[in-house]
Amino acid sequence: MISSTGWSRRSRRGSRISTRSSYMSIRTGRGNPAGPGQARKNRDASGRIERIPRLKKVEYFRHGIDEEELDHLREVLGSLFITTGRAVYEFENDFARYLDLPHTVAVTSCTAAMQLALLAGGVKPGDEVITSTMTFIGTPNAALMAGATPVLADIDRGTGNIDPAAVEAAVTERTRAVIPVHLYGQMCDMDALRAVADRHGLFIVEDAAHSIEAKWNGKAPGHYGEFAAFSFYATKNITSGEGGSISCHDRKQYELLSMLRLHGFNQLAADRYTSNYEKYDIGMFGWKYNMDSIHAAILIEQLKKIEAYGARRKKIFERYTEAFSAMDGIELHTTRPQAEHAYHLLTILVDPQRRDAVMNGLQERGIGVSINFVPVHRMTYYRERFGYRDGMFPVAEEIGARTISLPLYPKLTDEEVEYVIESVRETVEPA
After folding, report:
1. Which residue among the candidates 236, 288, 304, 411 is catalytic per the annotation?
2. N or C: which end of the chain has fewer CB within 10 A?
Protein backbone atom coordinates (compact mmCIF):
# COMPACT_ATOMS: atom_id res chain seq x y z
CA MET A 1 0.00 0.00 0.00
CA ILE A 2 1.37 3.41 -1.00
CA SER A 3 0.92 6.30 1.40
CA SER A 4 2.31 9.74 1.96
CA THR A 5 2.82 8.88 5.61
CA GLY A 6 4.61 5.55 5.32
CA TRP A 7 4.43 1.99 4.09
CA SER A 8 3.89 -1.26 5.89
CA ARG A 9 3.34 -4.91 5.18
CA ARG A 10 2.40 -8.03 7.12
CA SER A 11 4.73 -10.88 7.88
CA ARG A 12 3.88 -14.50 7.12
CA ARG A 13 2.50 -14.86 10.68
CA GLY A 14 0.28 -11.83 10.31
CA SER A 15 2.19 -9.49 12.59
CA ARG A 16 2.74 -6.00 11.30
CA ILE A 17 6.24 -5.21 10.09
CA SER A 18 7.15 -1.60 9.38
CA THR A 19 9.05 -1.13 6.13
CA ARG A 20 9.66 2.51 6.83
CA SER A 21 13.18 3.46 7.82
CA SER A 22 14.09 1.94 11.17
CA TYR A 23 16.85 3.87 12.83
CA MET A 24 18.89 1.16 14.48
CA SER A 25 21.28 2.31 17.18
CA ILE A 26 24.86 1.82 16.14
CA ARG A 27 26.78 1.14 19.29
CA THR A 28 30.41 1.45 20.15
CA GLY A 29 32.23 -1.21 22.10
CA ARG A 30 31.17 0.54 25.33
CA GLY A 31 27.50 0.37 24.37
CA ASN A 32 27.03 4.09 23.71
CA PRO A 33 24.70 4.82 20.76
CA ALA A 34 26.00 6.89 17.88
CA GLY A 35 23.26 9.37 17.08
CA PRO A 36 22.35 11.13 13.83
CA GLY A 37 25.06 13.36 12.44
CA GLN A 38 27.82 11.51 14.31
CA ALA A 39 30.55 9.24 13.05
CA ARG A 40 31.92 7.18 15.92
CA LYS A 41 35.16 5.25 15.74
CA ASN A 42 35.72 1.64 16.78
CA ARG A 43 38.84 -0.45 16.74
CA ASP A 44 38.78 -3.84 15.06
CA ALA A 45 40.68 -6.89 16.32
CA SER A 46 43.93 -5.61 14.80
CA GLY A 47 43.58 -2.25 16.50
CA ARG A 48 42.78 -0.30 13.32
CA ILE A 49 40.14 2.41 13.56
CA GLU A 50 36.90 1.68 11.74
CA ARG A 51 34.55 4.43 10.64
CA ILE A 52 30.91 3.85 11.53
CA PRO A 53 28.68 5.67 9.04
CA ARG A 54 26.45 8.35 10.47
CA LEU A 55 22.78 7.47 10.66
CA LYS A 56 20.40 8.93 8.09
CA LYS A 57 17.20 10.73 8.93
CA VAL A 58 16.18 10.54 5.27
CA GLU A 59 17.89 7.85 3.21
CA TYR A 60 18.78 8.62 -0.38
CA PHE A 61 16.60 5.69 -1.44
CA ARG A 62 14.29 3.00 -0.05
CA HIS A 63 13.02 0.26 -2.33
CA GLY A 64 9.36 -0.67 -2.67
CA ILE A 65 9.56 -4.46 -2.39
CA ASP A 66 6.67 -5.62 -0.23
CA GLU A 67 4.46 -8.63 0.47
CA GLU A 68 3.26 -9.06 -3.13
CA GLU A 69 6.82 -9.51 -4.34
CA LEU A 70 7.64 -11.85 -1.46
CA ASP A 71 4.59 -14.01 -2.22
CA HIS A 72 5.61 -14.31 -5.87
CA LEU A 73 9.17 -15.12 -4.85
CA ARG A 74 7.93 -17.97 -2.65
CA GLU A 75 5.92 -19.29 -5.58
CA VAL A 76 8.94 -19.25 -7.88
CA LEU A 77 11.24 -20.77 -5.27
CA GLY A 78 8.77 -23.61 -4.87
CA SER A 79 8.72 -24.30 -8.62
CA LEU A 80 11.03 -26.37 -10.80
CA PHE A 81 12.74 -23.47 -12.57
CA ILE A 82 14.34 -20.67 -10.59
CA THR A 83 16.52 -19.62 -13.51
CA THR A 84 15.14 -18.40 -16.86
CA GLY A 85 11.64 -19.83 -17.18
CA ARG A 86 7.94 -18.98 -17.12
CA ALA A 87 8.28 -15.92 -14.87
CA VAL A 88 10.84 -14.39 -17.23
CA TYR A 89 8.57 -14.91 -20.23
CA GLU A 90 5.67 -13.42 -18.29
CA PHE A 91 7.63 -10.31 -17.37
CA GLU A 92 8.92 -9.89 -20.92
CA ASN A 93 5.36 -10.01 -22.26
CA ASP A 94 4.05 -7.65 -19.56
CA PHE A 95 6.82 -5.12 -20.11
CA ALA A 96 6.49 -5.18 -23.90
CA ARG A 97 2.77 -4.57 -23.48
CA TYR A 98 3.43 -1.67 -21.09
CA LEU A 99 5.78 -0.03 -23.60
CA ASP A 100 3.51 -0.86 -26.54
CA LEU A 101 6.44 -2.53 -28.29
CA PRO A 102 6.47 -6.00 -29.86
CA HIS A 103 9.51 -7.54 -28.18
CA THR A 104 11.41 -7.42 -24.88
CA VAL A 105 14.41 -9.51 -23.83
CA ALA A 106 15.19 -9.62 -20.10
CA VAL A 107 18.87 -9.55 -19.12
CA THR A 108 21.06 -8.97 -16.08
CA SER A 109 21.69 -5.22 -16.40
CA CYS A 110 21.16 -2.16 -18.56
CA THR A 111 24.85 -2.28 -19.47
CA ALA A 112 24.41 -5.81 -20.82
CA ALA A 113 21.27 -4.67 -22.64
CA MET A 114 23.14 -1.88 -24.43
CA GLN A 115 26.06 -4.13 -25.34
CA LEU A 116 23.78 -6.77 -26.87
CA ALA A 117 21.69 -4.14 -28.67
CA LEU A 118 24.83 -2.70 -30.28
CA LEU A 119 25.92 -6.18 -31.37
CA ALA A 120 22.47 -7.03 -32.71
CA GLY A 121 22.52 -3.76 -34.66
CA GLY A 122 25.76 -4.77 -36.35
CA VAL A 123 28.45 -2.86 -34.45
CA LYS A 124 31.91 -4.28 -35.12
CA PRO A 125 35.44 -3.59 -33.87
CA GLY A 126 36.63 -0.26 -35.23
CA ASP A 127 33.15 1.27 -35.29
CA GLU A 128 32.31 4.35 -33.24
CA VAL A 129 29.31 4.85 -30.98
CA ILE A 130 28.35 8.39 -29.93
CA THR A 131 26.92 8.95 -26.47
CA SER A 132 26.67 11.59 -23.76
CA THR A 133 29.53 12.39 -21.43
CA MET A 134 26.88 13.07 -18.75
CA THR A 135 25.92 9.49 -17.95
CA PHE A 136 26.68 6.48 -15.79
CA ILE A 137 29.87 4.74 -16.86
CA GLY A 138 27.91 1.69 -18.06
CA THR A 139 26.82 3.55 -21.21
CA PRO A 140 30.24 4.10 -22.81
CA ASN A 141 31.49 0.83 -21.32
CA ALA A 142 28.77 -1.00 -23.26
CA ALA A 143 30.28 0.35 -26.48
CA LEU A 144 33.72 -0.87 -25.42
CA MET A 145 32.25 -4.26 -24.51
CA ALA A 146 30.78 -4.48 -28.01
CA GLY A 147 34.23 -3.84 -29.51
CA ALA A 148 33.48 -0.26 -30.54
CA THR A 149 35.02 3.08 -29.59
CA PRO A 150 32.78 5.34 -27.49
CA VAL A 151 32.76 8.94 -28.71
CA LEU A 152 31.47 11.45 -26.18
CA ALA A 153 29.31 14.49 -26.88
CA ASP A 154 28.25 17.51 -24.83
CA ILE A 155 24.79 18.15 -23.41
CA ASP A 156 21.94 20.62 -23.52
CA ARG A 157 22.25 22.99 -20.58
CA GLY A 158 18.53 23.13 -19.79
CA THR A 159 17.76 19.41 -19.60
CA GLY A 160 21.15 17.75 -19.17
CA ASN A 161 20.38 15.49 -22.13
CA ILE A 162 22.69 15.00 -25.09
CA ASP A 163 22.78 17.90 -27.57
CA PRO A 164 21.71 16.74 -31.08
CA ALA A 165 24.00 19.35 -32.67
CA ALA A 166 26.94 17.93 -30.70
CA VAL A 167 26.02 14.44 -31.88
CA GLU A 168 26.02 15.51 -35.52
CA ALA A 169 29.36 17.28 -35.08
CA ALA A 170 30.86 14.04 -33.71
CA VAL A 171 29.80 11.85 -36.66
CA THR A 172 32.64 10.39 -38.73
CA GLU A 173 32.84 7.77 -41.44
CA ARG A 174 33.31 5.17 -38.69
CA THR A 175 30.20 6.11 -36.68
CA ARG A 176 27.69 3.27 -36.55
CA ALA A 177 25.28 4.07 -33.70
CA VAL A 178 24.10 6.67 -31.19
CA ILE A 179 23.13 6.03 -27.56
CA PRO A 180 21.03 8.96 -26.30
CA VAL A 181 20.73 8.89 -22.51
CA HIS A 182 17.28 9.88 -21.21
CA LEU A 183 18.65 11.60 -18.13
CA TYR A 184 16.86 12.03 -14.78
CA GLY A 185 13.53 10.82 -16.23
CA GLN A 186 13.19 13.06 -19.30
CA MET A 187 13.63 11.72 -22.82
CA CYS A 188 16.08 13.38 -25.19
CA ASP A 189 14.98 15.38 -28.23
CA MET A 190 14.20 12.25 -30.20
CA ASP A 191 12.86 14.06 -33.26
CA ALA A 192 16.20 15.81 -33.76
CA LEU A 193 18.26 12.72 -32.92
CA ARG A 194 16.23 10.52 -35.24
CA ALA A 195 16.82 13.04 -38.02
CA VAL A 196 20.59 13.03 -37.36
CA ALA A 197 20.68 9.23 -37.35
CA ASP A 198 18.71 8.98 -40.58
CA ARG A 199 20.91 11.55 -42.35
CA HIS A 200 24.02 9.53 -41.55
CA GLY A 201 22.69 5.98 -41.72
CA LEU A 202 23.04 5.30 -37.98
CA PHE A 203 20.92 3.23 -35.63
CA ILE A 204 19.81 4.31 -32.15
CA VAL A 205 19.96 2.47 -28.83
CA GLU A 206 18.01 4.49 -26.26
CA ASP A 207 19.49 4.36 -22.76
CA ALA A 208 16.24 4.52 -20.80
CA ALA A 209 17.64 3.46 -17.42
CA HIS A 210 16.09 6.58 -15.84
CA SER A 211 12.98 6.79 -17.97
CA ILE A 212 10.74 3.73 -18.04
CA GLU A 213 7.54 5.80 -17.75
CA ALA A 214 8.75 8.74 -19.86
CA LYS A 215 7.36 9.76 -23.23
CA TRP A 216 8.37 12.07 -26.08
CA ASN A 217 5.41 13.34 -28.07
CA GLY A 218 3.35 10.60 -26.44
CA LYS A 219 5.73 7.76 -27.36
CA ALA A 220 7.63 5.62 -24.86
CA PRO A 221 11.34 4.80 -25.07
CA GLY A 222 12.00 2.37 -27.89
CA HIS A 223 9.58 3.96 -30.34
CA TYR A 224 12.19 6.27 -31.87
CA GLY A 225 15.24 4.02 -31.66
CA GLU A 226 15.81 0.59 -33.11
CA PHE A 227 16.46 -0.56 -29.54
CA ALA A 228 15.86 0.66 -25.99
CA ALA A 229 17.71 -0.50 -22.88
CA PHE A 230 16.20 -0.38 -19.39
CA SER A 231 17.57 -0.79 -15.86
CA PHE A 232 15.98 -2.45 -12.84
CA TYR A 233 18.81 -1.61 -10.46
CA ALA A 234 17.97 -1.02 -6.79
CA THR A 235 17.36 2.73 -7.11
CA LYS A 236 15.31 2.62 -10.32
CA ASN A 237 11.58 3.37 -10.60
CA ILE A 238 10.85 -0.36 -10.59
CA THR A 239 13.50 -2.72 -9.29
CA SER A 240 14.58 -6.30 -8.85
CA GLY A 241 17.86 -5.33 -7.19
CA GLU A 242 19.76 -5.97 -10.40
CA GLY A 243 18.45 -6.49 -13.90
CA GLY A 244 17.79 -4.95 -17.29
CA SER A 245 15.96 -5.47 -20.56
CA ILE A 246 16.15 -4.70 -24.26
CA SER A 247 13.17 -3.74 -26.39
CA CYS A 248 13.14 -3.95 -30.16
CA HIS A 249 10.79 -3.94 -33.15
CA ASP A 250 12.13 -6.69 -35.39
CA ARG A 251 11.39 -10.38 -34.79
CA LYS A 252 14.75 -11.52 -36.16
CA GLN A 253 16.59 -9.12 -33.88
CA TYR A 254 14.54 -10.38 -30.94
CA GLU A 255 15.59 -13.96 -31.75
CA LEU A 256 19.21 -12.84 -32.12
CA LEU A 257 19.15 -11.02 -28.78
CA SER A 258 17.60 -14.07 -27.10
CA MET A 259 20.55 -16.17 -28.29
CA LEU A 260 23.21 -13.56 -27.52
CA ARG A 261 22.09 -13.31 -23.89
CA LEU A 262 22.77 -17.02 -23.21
CA HIS A 263 25.91 -18.35 -24.89
CA GLY A 264 24.23 -18.57 -28.31
CA PHE A 265 21.76 -21.31 -27.27
CA ASN A 266 18.89 -21.73 -29.71
CA GLN A 267 16.56 -22.58 -26.80
CA LEU A 268 16.49 -22.17 -23.03
CA ALA A 269 16.76 -25.00 -20.52
CA ALA A 270 13.08 -24.62 -19.59
CA ASP A 271 12.08 -25.19 -23.22
CA ARG A 272 13.61 -28.65 -23.12
CA TYR A 273 10.84 -29.75 -20.73
CA THR A 274 8.00 -28.83 -23.10
CA SER A 275 6.33 -30.64 -25.98
CA ASN A 276 8.32 -28.42 -28.35
CA TYR A 277 11.65 -29.88 -27.23
CA GLU A 278 14.33 -30.18 -29.87
CA LYS A 279 18.00 -30.96 -29.44
CA TYR A 280 19.62 -27.67 -28.56
CA ASP A 281 22.39 -26.11 -30.61
CA ILE A 282 24.87 -23.25 -30.27
CA GLY A 283 24.45 -21.05 -33.30
CA MET A 284 26.83 -18.23 -32.35
CA PHE A 285 29.07 -16.87 -29.65
CA GLY A 286 27.09 -15.36 -26.79
CA TRP A 287 27.26 -14.13 -23.21
CA LYS A 288 25.76 -15.16 -19.87
CA TYR A 289 23.27 -12.32 -19.42
CA ASN A 290 19.96 -14.17 -19.00
CA MET A 291 17.63 -12.91 -16.26
CA ASP A 292 16.42 -15.57 -13.83
CA SER A 293 12.87 -16.18 -12.63
CA ILE A 294 13.68 -14.90 -9.13
CA HIS A 295 14.35 -11.39 -10.42
CA ALA A 296 11.50 -11.64 -12.91
CA ALA A 297 9.01 -12.52 -10.16
CA ILE A 298 9.85 -9.30 -8.34
CA LEU A 299 9.52 -7.27 -11.54
CA ILE A 300 6.12 -8.73 -12.41
CA GLU A 301 4.75 -7.35 -9.14
CA GLN A 302 6.72 -4.10 -9.37
CA LEU A 303 5.29 -3.38 -12.81
CA LYS A 304 1.76 -3.65 -11.42
CA LYS A 305 2.57 -0.72 -9.09
CA ILE A 306 4.26 1.52 -11.64
CA GLU A 307 1.35 3.94 -12.04
CA ALA A 308 0.90 4.35 -8.29
CA TYR A 309 4.63 4.75 -7.83
CA GLY A 310 4.69 7.33 -10.61
CA ALA A 311 1.87 9.37 -9.09
CA ARG A 312 3.70 9.57 -5.77
CA ARG A 313 6.99 10.47 -7.46
CA LYS A 314 5.24 13.21 -9.42
CA LYS A 315 3.73 14.70 -6.28
CA ILE A 316 7.11 14.82 -4.55
CA PHE A 317 8.84 16.19 -7.65
CA GLU A 318 6.27 18.97 -7.97
CA ARG A 319 6.57 19.90 -4.28
CA TYR A 320 10.35 20.08 -4.61
CA THR A 321 10.05 22.16 -7.78
CA GLU A 322 7.64 24.58 -6.11
CA ALA A 323 9.93 25.04 -3.10
CA PHE A 324 13.30 25.20 -4.84
CA SER A 325 12.11 27.54 -7.59
CA ALA A 326 11.57 30.15 -4.89
CA MET A 327 15.03 29.77 -3.31
CA ASP A 328 18.01 31.95 -4.12
CA GLY A 329 21.12 30.06 -5.14
CA ILE A 330 19.30 27.10 -6.72
CA GLU A 331 18.64 26.34 -10.37
CA LEU A 332 16.55 23.44 -11.67
CA HIS A 333 16.61 21.56 -14.94
CA THR A 334 13.83 22.36 -17.40
CA THR A 335 11.24 19.98 -18.83
CA ARG A 336 10.60 20.27 -22.56
CA PRO A 337 6.94 20.65 -23.68
CA GLN A 338 7.17 17.44 -25.76
CA ALA A 339 8.29 15.43 -22.72
CA GLU A 340 6.32 13.47 -20.15
CA HIS A 341 8.66 13.06 -17.19
CA ALA A 342 9.32 9.79 -15.35
CA TYR A 343 10.36 11.70 -12.19
CA HIS A 344 13.34 9.46 -11.55
CA LEU A 345 15.73 12.04 -10.10
CA LEU A 346 15.37 15.54 -8.70
CA THR A 347 18.65 17.38 -9.09
CA ILE A 348 19.37 20.88 -7.90
CA LEU A 349 22.16 23.03 -9.35
CA VAL A 350 24.13 25.18 -6.92
CA ASP A 351 27.23 27.36 -7.03
CA PRO A 352 30.11 25.00 -7.90
CA GLN A 353 32.29 26.70 -5.28
CA ARG A 354 29.73 25.76 -2.63
CA ARG A 355 28.52 22.39 -3.92
CA ASP A 356 30.64 20.27 -1.58
CA ALA A 357 29.75 22.44 1.42
CA VAL A 358 26.05 22.12 0.59
CA MET A 359 26.34 18.34 0.25
CA ASN A 360 28.22 18.10 3.54
CA GLY A 361 25.60 20.27 5.23
CA LEU A 362 22.80 18.04 3.99
CA GLN A 363 24.62 14.91 5.11
CA GLU A 364 25.19 16.43 8.55
CA ARG A 365 21.42 16.89 8.75
CA GLY A 366 20.94 13.22 7.88
CA ILE A 367 19.91 13.71 4.24
CA GLY A 368 21.17 11.13 1.76
CA VAL A 369 22.48 12.80 -1.41
CA SER A 370 24.31 11.80 -4.58
CA ILE A 371 25.95 13.27 -7.69
CA ASN A 372 24.50 12.39 -11.11
CA PHE A 373 26.98 12.49 -12.69
CA VAL A 374 30.67 13.15 -12.81
CA PRO A 375 31.15 13.45 -16.62
CA VAL A 376 32.70 10.37 -18.22
CA HIS A 377 35.53 12.35 -19.83
CA ARG A 378 36.77 13.31 -16.36
CA MET A 379 37.19 9.67 -15.32
CA THR A 380 40.83 8.58 -15.12
CA TYR A 381 40.43 5.55 -17.38
CA TYR A 382 38.78 7.54 -20.18
CA ARG A 383 41.26 10.41 -19.87
CA GLU A 384 44.23 8.07 -20.10
CA ARG A 385 42.89 5.82 -22.84
CA PHE A 386 41.20 8.39 -25.09
CA GLY A 387 43.03 11.60 -24.25
CA TYR A 388 40.05 13.57 -22.97
CA ARG A 389 40.88 16.87 -21.28
CA ASP A 390 39.05 19.44 -19.20
CA GLY A 391 37.35 22.05 -21.34
CA MET A 392 36.32 19.67 -24.14
CA PHE A 393 32.70 19.46 -22.96
CA PRO A 394 32.07 22.73 -21.11
CA VAL A 395 28.33 22.37 -20.50
CA ALA A 396 28.68 18.91 -18.98
CA GLU A 397 31.57 20.13 -16.85
CA GLU A 398 29.50 23.02 -15.51
CA ILE A 399 26.48 20.84 -14.71
CA GLY A 400 28.66 18.08 -13.25
CA ALA A 401 30.27 20.56 -10.86
CA ARG A 402 26.94 21.98 -9.68
CA THR A 403 24.55 19.04 -9.43
CA ILE A 404 23.19 17.43 -6.27
CA SER A 405 20.58 14.65 -6.37
CA LEU A 406 18.05 14.58 -3.53
CA PRO A 407 15.87 11.76 -2.15
CA LEU A 408 12.95 10.98 -4.50
CA TYR A 409 11.04 7.71 -4.15
CA PRO A 410 7.50 6.56 -3.36
CA LYS A 411 8.20 5.63 0.26
CA LEU A 412 9.33 9.15 1.06
CA THR A 413 6.79 10.66 3.46
CA ASP A 414 5.40 14.20 3.32
CA GLU A 415 7.20 14.93 6.59
CA GLU A 416 10.49 13.75 5.12
CA VAL A 417 9.96 15.81 1.96
CA GLU A 418 9.46 18.96 4.04
CA TYR A 419 12.53 18.11 6.11
CA VAL A 420 14.61 17.80 2.92
CA ILE A 421 13.30 21.16 1.68
CA GLU A 422 14.05 22.91 4.96
CA SER A 423 17.50 21.32 5.13
CA VAL A 424 18.30 22.52 1.61
CA ARG A 425 17.11 26.00 2.55
CA GLU A 426 19.36 26.05 5.62
CA THR A 427 22.44 24.92 3.70
CA VAL A 428 21.98 26.93 0.49
CA GLU A 429 20.61 30.08 2.15
CA PRO A 430 22.56 30.24 5.43
CA ALA A 431 21.46 33.00 7.81
Report:
1. 236
2. C
